[in-house]
Write a structure and sequence with these properties.
The complex is a heterotrimer of chains A (329), B (281) and C (295). In chain B, 40% of the residues lie in helices and 23% in strands. Chain B has 281 residues and is of the alpha/beta class. Classes of the chains: A alpha/beta (329), B alpha/beta (281), C mainly alpha (295).
């Protein structure tokens, strides 16, 4: 841990100004991503995980403001101007979005989509860029790259589109890759391919920050996991520790809710009763208290702080964290 | 399979889409969406249809619902062949089976409240129902899916994905259909919400002896909900059998591949898989 | 998803409430709406303020066509025949607005019904219905109106129908495009699965979901209709004396432009105000009813 982390997020807050006042989407988020490691941010819809990504890249909606600090390779991104951000986007941080159909411009050929980053910045000549594009397509195992370059996104299958988007994100040799729900819209077999690609990228020394709600994806790929609920971090741990021994009741409940292929086929899956609170309705105490089976009055009144574990690289924000191993069915 | 007449039976159904050529001289291509597919669902039974995109599972759902006519083969409902041109028979078919779609927001009319959506289904399928009785039944339907009376006046954009899907289920079950077709009904939901909805479907099926045709690409979910499973690949049924048979001893290679690719929340297992796949590549 | 959560948290008034809120944010649209309201009020009540009536000639004037003055009670002046312009302008506004609203109503009703049905049914029926629209588009419209006027005489009802009969064509095209897209949405499939007849589905599910576009387009059609009516009046085919419309007033004023500019300025100012306000209001409505707000 002597080297500085590639991405350092400290006390990140994201607010949206709406006609009914300011709504807080993300509060007090702090974590690091180092080179050669993959960090997964896990949470349900509405937990604010996508907004964390958007805030880092300066891609928040017009009515959103970010506060706090996001340092990438020593440069502060929050509050940086468009020019400074543009010099980081693509060449420093690559972005792989959720839906490959909408992230690839429909009327542009694959070649244009892949090479525009390089050509616009004058980083390579046309022929050199084309060569890089061909190589990138081969790296992601797309067959017959020459003819693919001339095709349009809608002529490719969903899996191939995601691989092209992946190649595009890496074209300008970024040091860090952001992946926003990269496997959600894909079939299981294709998911496996994309995960392999991400693992390969991590092993080559890039940092990877992946946003997802799929714990199976997290299990195979991530080195560390950050669990978010209602805009705040509730637990961080290494992947092995998190799956073996979740400390926060929400993490345990999430793990219990995943349907399994092995073990007894329970008639009932273990869901979490209720719904996450709306941003405007977050209670003063722990946001999960209303749905937590271990909560008491203290939990509902005082919000727990995120406390670092003294011995392991882990943290949990809970007044009554779990200690015993949780059994899975 | 019981010896009683199955509630629904599809026999050798094939559906072909004709894609007309781009110009005058390009010949048209025929796309086989379903080829020689046969399934059956007993009364109160739950059948899971598993496949990836392009496998034809959504087309199968539409054939069962009568939204698409099969080019060959036939569909039997309650032992009788479905005649698409008989308006009376089709009406009875609609009353007997309903559908829940994948996109929770898209399957509800954005201009109708939850109560109106459920009320419309009630009047169309079980009507005419006088308005006081209708209000009671709407309230009961919503509460059966876990939504309080306040939700009746909410619009889809004011609800979460899980809540929208509950409204869709309430709409589909208010007239007590005998078969509920769920076309990727939980695929767009978070894992914890998915668990709630799967439990709800299981409960409704048990309580009302309602059969389920559950279509999904997620084998693990299907395993929890369905007793019988059919695996589709490129429009054909590659394997069919009870849950134990499919998961315990899958016969077809495709089924085995599909099982192997399901992400499990077990770090050691997943990493080993990824490492093995990369060695292969 | 946070966006949806934010919307859900803050919007509890349903769809029209949300649209109304967004409309209130557009200052241009609000000012335009207020001005428009003022014009309507004046059109209805204005003539009562004045002592003169629309056809009354003021014999007391020394010369005809006097400029506006507060002293003699002719606030906008008089025209070449000695009639009070103030009253004539507001009566004319009434007529123009009436024609515009009725003609727009006709074109909305026919256009929405035609377009929604064609778009929903699709296939060959859609093809025939839209080819019919294309053919009507191609007809020489003015020719048609002139023949009708000659055959049926210059009646007011004829004007409404004639203008409405053309206005519906573009409305039908727009609505048909929307209906085609809506047909693919899952909630329409769900309605089909309920066994609802096509007519019910079109009326209950398709039409309400195209209303946003229709309202916006209608506010942008009204100016076109007023202009068209003015054009007809300019040609002498519109409303007849002693009734008048803004178009006629502008036409008459244009003839006297050099000697009595107020005859042109007053009706033009009112006409321009109405047109500008409607355009701003249409823009505001389009933003307020933006379907992006709803999934």
């Amino acid at each position: 841990m002597t080297a500085d982390a590639l991405l350092q997020v400290r006390d990140l807050d994201v607010d949206f100004s709406t006609s009914q006042g300011t709504v807080n989407a993300v509060a007090g988020v702090t974590f690091d991503v180092r080179a050669g490691e993959c960090v997964a941010v896990v949470g349900e819809s509405g937990s604010g995980k996508t907004q964390v990504l958007m805030a880092c890249l300066g891609l928040l909606a017009a009515n959103g403001t970010a506060q706090g600090s996001v340092r990438f390779a020593g440069r502060e991104l929050i509050g940086a101007g468009e020019q400074a951000l543009n010099s980081v986007r693509g060449t420093g941080i690559g972005l792989l979005s959720q839906d490959p159909l909408s992230s690839l411009t429909p009327h542009l050929r694959i070649e244009t989509l892949l090479t525009e980053g390089l050509l616009d910045r004058g980083l390579a000549s046309r022929t050199a860029a084309r060569e890089r594009a061909l190589r990138a397509l081969r790296d992601v195992e797309i067959s017959d790259p020459e003819s693919r370059l001339r095709q349009y996104p809608h002529e490719l299958s969903g899996g191939m589109r995601q691989r092209v988007a992946f190649a595009a994100a890496l074209m300008c040799n970024p040091q860090l890759l952001f992946a926003d729900e990269p496997t959600t819209a894909l079939d299981v077999s294709v998911q496996a391919r994309v995960l392999e690609l991400l693992a390969g990228v991590r092993d080559r020394g890039l940092g990877v920050l992946i946003i997802t709600h799929d714990l199976g994806v997290v299990a195979g790929l991530a080195d560390r996991v950050v669990v978010m609920y209602a805009g705040r971090i509730v637990e961080t741990a290494t992947t092995t520790d998190l799956f073996a021994m979740p400390r926060h009741p929400y993490t345990a409940a999430l793990l219990a809710a995943v349907p399994r292929l092995h073990g007894a086929a329970q008639a009932r899956l273990v869901g979490i009763p209720g719904d996450p609170p709306q941003p405007a309705e977050r209670p003063p105490g722990c946001a999960f208290a209303a749905r937590c089976e271990f909560a008491d009055d203290h939990c509902a009144q005082r919000r727990p702080e995120l406390l670092q574990d003294a011995y392991r690289e882990a943290a949990v924000a809970c007044h009554r964290p779990l200690r015993a191993r949780t059994e899975h069915a | 399979m019981s010896s009683a007449t199955p509630l629904l039976r599809v026999e050798h159904a094939s559906v072909r889409y004709v894609l007309r050529g781009a110009g005058y001289f390009t010949p048209s291509r025929t796309l086989g969406a379903l080829t020689d597919v046969s399934i059956e669902i007993p009364e109160g039974g739950r059948l899971g249809v598993v496949g990836e995109s392009g496998s034809g599972k959504s087309t199968l759902a539409r054939v069962v619902l009568g939204l698409v006519r099969a080019n060959s083969g036939r569909v039997l409902w309650e032992g009788r062949v479905v005649d698409y041109d008989d308006a009376g028979a089709m009406r009875a078919l609609r009353r007997g089976m309903q559908v829940v779609f994948q996109d929770p927001f898209g399957s509800l009319d954005p201009r109708m409240t939850a109560g109106q959506a459920v009320g419309e289904a009630l009047q169309a399928l079980a009507g005419p129902v006088p308005s006081v009785a209708a209000q009671d039944r709407i309230r009961a339907a919503l509460s059966e899916v876990g939504l309080g009376a306040a939700f009746a006046n909410r619009y889809p954009h004011e609800l979460s994905g899980g809540q929208c899907q509950r409204v869709a289920i309430a709409r589909a079950t208010v007239a007590r259909p005998r078969l509920l077709v769920c076309d990727e009904a939980v695929s767009a939901l978070d894992v914890s919400v998915q668990a709630q909805i799967v439990n709800l479907l299981h409960e409704l099926s048990e309580r009302h002896q309602m059969s389920l045709l559950f279509i999904s690409h997620n084998l693990a979910v299907v395993r929890h909900l369905c007793e019988d499973i059919a695996v589709l690949c490129e429009g054909r049924v590659v394997e069919q059998g009870s849950r134990d048979a499919i998961f315990g001893s899958p016969q077809a290679q495709y089924t085995r591949d599909l099982l192997a690719a399901v992400p499990e929340p077990d770090p050691a297992l997943q990493r080993a898989r990824i490492a093995a796949a990369r060695v292969q590549a | 998803m946070v966006e949806a959560a934010v919307v859900a948290a803050t919007g509890g008034q349903g769809l029209w409430g949300g649209a109304w809120r967004r409309l209130k944010r557009s200052r241009a649209a609000l000012v335009a709406a207020a001005l428009l309201l003022l014009v309507c009020v004046m059109a209805l009540a204005g003539p009562w303020f004045s002592a003169w009536s629309v056809a009354q000639v003021d014999w007391s004037q020394a010369t005809l066509a006097t400029p506006p003055s507060l002293a003699n009670g002719h606030w906008f002046g008089t025209d070449a025949n000695g009639r009070d312009l103030f009253v004539r302008v507001w009566i004319g506004t009434r007529m123009s607005l009436l024609v515009a609203l009725l003609a727009t109503l006709v074109s909305v009703v026919i256009g929405v019904a035609w377009g929604a049905t064609a778009g929903y049914l699709g296939g060959r029926v859609d093809g025939w219905m839209m080819r019919f629209v294309d053919v009507l588009y191609a007809l020489p419209y003015m020719f048609f109106v002139i023949i009708l006027t000659v055959v049926f005489g210059r009646s007011l009802v004829l004007i409404f129908l004639a203008i409405g009969a053309v206005g519906w064509l573009t409305m039908a095209r727009i609505v048909r495009g929307q209906a085609l897209a809506l047909r693919q949405r899952e909630f329409v499939e769900a309605a089909i699965a309920l066994g609802l007849p096509a007519g019910t589905i079109i009326a209950r599910h398709i039409v309400p979901n195209v209303l946003g576009t229709v309202i916006v387009y209608a506010t942008l059609t009204v100016p076109q209709v007023i202009l068209f009516e003015s054009f007809l009046s300019f040609l002498g085919l519109g409303v007849q004396e002693p009734l008048t419309s803004l178009g006629r007033l502008v036409a008459e004023g244009a003839l006297e432009m050099e000697t009595s500019p107020w005859l042109l300025l007053a009706p033009s100012a009112v006409l321009a105000t109405i047109l500008l306000c409607l355009n701003f209001l249409g823009d505001g409505l389009r933003d307020a009813l933006d379907p992006r707000q709803h999934r």
